[in-house]
Amino acid sequence: MKKLGLVLVAALLCVSVPPARAAARWVEGTNYVLLHPAQPTAVPAGKVEVMEVFSYGCPFCNKFQPVMQALERSLPPDARMVFLPAAFHPEEDWPMFQQAFFAAQSLGIARRTQQAMFDAVWKTGQLAVDNPATEEPVHPLPSLEDAARYYSKLTGVSVPKFLAAARSFGVMMKVRQANAQIMAMQVPGTPCLIVDGKYRIRNSSMRSPDEVISLVKYLVAKAGKHS
Length: 227
Prior knowledge:
Elements: H1 2-12, E1 32-34, E2 48-54, H2 59-74, E3 79-85, H3 94-106, H4 114-122, H5 144-155, H6 159-166, H7 169-184, E4 192-195, E5 199-201, H8 209-225
Parallel strand pairs: 2-3
Antiparallel strand pairs: 1-5, 2-4, 4-5
């Protein structure tokens, strides 16, 4: 997982990179994988879903945030960004962050707190999962109650209300569905981008942020032609 994330993040740190390759050079099996079966999407009819599989506990997802923000700004009007949290690493608190994200989503506060949650883990340390001095997991890891208090500070949603949402049947169902969908999409690590529920980008083939954005836009157009 960490090796796959490092491949993509390394591109972010390049000072000088080749120009993005022309769309004609994007090759199925090399630059992206066609998923079988295609997964259902969660965007309105006539729109193309661009999904990031991520975790707030993933250091590479945190470093990838500038690319995600640039990508979202550059998407055409027929594309919509969505986020699907993964739970690959219990030892790094990913299941807790997954549950907290779905609770925030159910309360309508997930999108406006996205960057703040990354900052709480990797910048301010309010929800840190690693000791920056040793790079070892902290003990104890942040709890769901810790996340609820932080969301309350950000948005004013009360801690009891947030915890009730997090422990609701609806959120627990979303957790199960997310884990099943991530497995069905054969997600190898995070961050991972999937377009229209059927095109999964191969991180190892990307050389720069511009290439990531170019390939996503190419796949959005390709999906739109076949809708």
